[in-house]
DNA sequence: AAGTTCTTATTAC
DNA sequence: CTAACGGTAATAAGAACTT
């Protein structure tokens, strides 16, 4: 039986919330992320509104560069507490668009059982196969968008397709290109529906990096592999139709297991179920210093803090750990990890502290460079 | 030779 | 001097190690 999957993605989420809370920002460039510190800040842009994008600013850009591009922008710190609260309210709204749970042994097999999946603060999937029609799916999407706008005063973009992959890419493509935005405060607020018979045409002209799982590195490797067999313009984007020229065997040779899924994805195939079952496998904390340092006072007081916070979380969540990993990034962005797996799982914060410090000490003894970042992560059970 | 651990690389939000 | 690049988490692959 064919599925119908909906992907909802809030528009420039953090920045849009800030606009909503501060109407005086309307039409002005808003950048949420690290403190630019007059151009010397070391963090990155988390999210920015579309006015800021006109200056060339985008997510994940170093905040120093964003400041360079538009020093007069409104730079705001990440107010995660607020975004979390807003997220919860939105998810509550979304949840109501699914049929109520049917208490039954054959839950998963019932077409009417509620299937949804929250993938981040601002994204979720809904399995709306029960509607049995794309027309009804469109209707539901319109109503959902309207309710979120009315109740939360926020716009979102929705993609609908026969699986999670297509729904996700559809939502991405439904957001208009940033350069075309005006200063009027217009928001993406999009909706794109790709029916099964449209999937092939939809995917073929897209850039391969539009496929989830292909980032810059994998994109490069595929480009190289393709230009070896046929001449290509050096800077022309590689499209999904080009990717389809590689056989499954070739892709697996090039990319291993990833190649296998990419072969399917290029053809719009994705059987991943929409499911809310998700288990956290590790928890960690890391910190970048304002300046690279070798001062043991600074390094160890921060590390102590990190150890305490993770210890706290383990205690609060009743979780056990067995593997401890310490991350150390030196001057020049050179990053290394050291890990230690214990005999058996434990929740003892003394052990965590002892082992973590041992690992960090090893780093300090074997590498004399200044330290940029330290971090700690534990694998949990 | 197989299983476990350690380390790095890549991706995504 | 030329790049600038956070924090959190998952997954994969291969090297290194035990048994």
Number of strands: 12
Strand composition percent? 15-25%
Principal-axes geometry comes out as: globular
Tell me the name of the CATH homologous superfamily of the largest domain. Answer: Reverse transcriptase/Diguanylate cyclase domain
What fold name goes in the CATH topology slot of the largest domain? Alpha-Beta Plaits
Structure annotation, total helices: 13
Domain unit count: 4
Element order, helices and strands? Answer: EHEEHHEHEEHEHEHHHHHEHEEHE
Largest β sheet strand count, sense and barrel closure: 5 strands, mixed
Helix content: 25-40%
Q: What separation lies between the terminal Cα atoms?
A: 37 Å
| Alpha-carbon Rg, integer | 24 Å
Mind explaining what this structure looks like?
The chain is an alpha+beta fold. It has 4 domains: 5-11 and 81-201, Alpha-Beta Plaits; 14-79, 3-Layer(aba) Sandwich (MutS, DNA mismatch repair protein, domain I); 208-265, no CATH class; 282-380, Dna Ligase, domain 1 (2-Layer Sandwich), CATH 3.30.1490.100. It contains 13 helices and 12 strands. The protein has helices spanning 13-21, 50-53, 63-69, 80-95, 134-152, 164-174, 199-203, 216-227, 240-243, 248-255, 257-265, 296-317, 349-366; strands spanning 5-10, 30-33, 45-48, 74-76, 116-120, 123-127, 156-161, 191-193, 282-293, 321-330, 334-346, 371-380. The chain has a 5-stranded mixed sheet. Helix 4 packs across helix 5 (134-152), helix 10 packs across helix 11 (257-265) and helix 12 (296-317) packs antiparallel against helix 13 (349-366). The two termini are 37 Å apart. The model has no long low-confidence stretch (mean pLDDT 93). It binds a DNA duplex (13 and 19 nucleotides) through helix 3, helix 8, strand 9, strand 11 and strand 12.
């Amino acid at each position: 039986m064919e599925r119908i999957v909906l992907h909802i993605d809030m528009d420039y989420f953090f920045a849009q919330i800030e606009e909503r809370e501060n109407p005086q920002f309307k039409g002005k460039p808003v950048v949420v992320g690290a403190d630019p510190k007059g151009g010397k800040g070391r963090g990155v842009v988390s999210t920015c509104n579309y006015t800021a994008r006109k200056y060339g600013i985008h997510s994940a850009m170093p905040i120093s560069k964003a400041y360079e591009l538009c020093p007069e922008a409104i730079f705001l710190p990440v107010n995660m507490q607020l975004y979390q609260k807003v997220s919860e309210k939105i998810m509550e709204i979304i949840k109501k668009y699914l049929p109520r749970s049917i208490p039954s042994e054959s839950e998963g097999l019932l077409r009417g059982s509620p299937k949804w999946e929250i993938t981040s603060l601002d994204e979720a999937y809904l399995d709306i196969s029960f509607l049995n029609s794309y027309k009804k799916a469109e209707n539901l999407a319109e109503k959902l968008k309207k309710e979120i706008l009315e109740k939360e005063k926020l716009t979102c973009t929705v993609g609908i397709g026969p699986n999670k992959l297509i729904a996700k890419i559809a939502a991405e493509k439904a957001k208009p290109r940033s350069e075309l935005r005006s200063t009027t405060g217009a928001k993406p607020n999009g909706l794109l529906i790709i029916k099964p018979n449209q999937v092939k045409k939809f995917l073929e002209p897209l850039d391969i990096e539009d496929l989830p799982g292909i980032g810059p590195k994998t994109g490069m490797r595929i480009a190289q592999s393709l230009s070896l067999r046929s001449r290509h313009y050096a800077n022309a984007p590689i499209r999904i139709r080009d990717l389809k020229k590689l056989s499954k065997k070739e892709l697996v040779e090039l990319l291993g297991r990833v190649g296998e899924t990419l072969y399917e994805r290029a053809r719009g195939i994705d059987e991943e179920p929409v499911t809310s079952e998700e288990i956290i496998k590790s928890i960690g904390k890391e910190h970048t210093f304002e300046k690279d340092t070798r001062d043991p006072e600074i390094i160890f007081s921060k590390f102590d803090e990190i150890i305490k916070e993770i210890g706290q979380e383990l205690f609060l969540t009743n979780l056990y750990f067995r593997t401890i990993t310490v991350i150390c990034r030196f001057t020049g962005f050179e990053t290394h990890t050291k890990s230690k797996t214990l005999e058996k799982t434990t929740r003892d914060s003394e052990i965590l502290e002892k082992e973590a410090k041992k690992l960090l000490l090893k780093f300090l003894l074997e590498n004399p460079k200044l330290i940029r970042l330290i971090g700690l992560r534990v694998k949990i059970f």
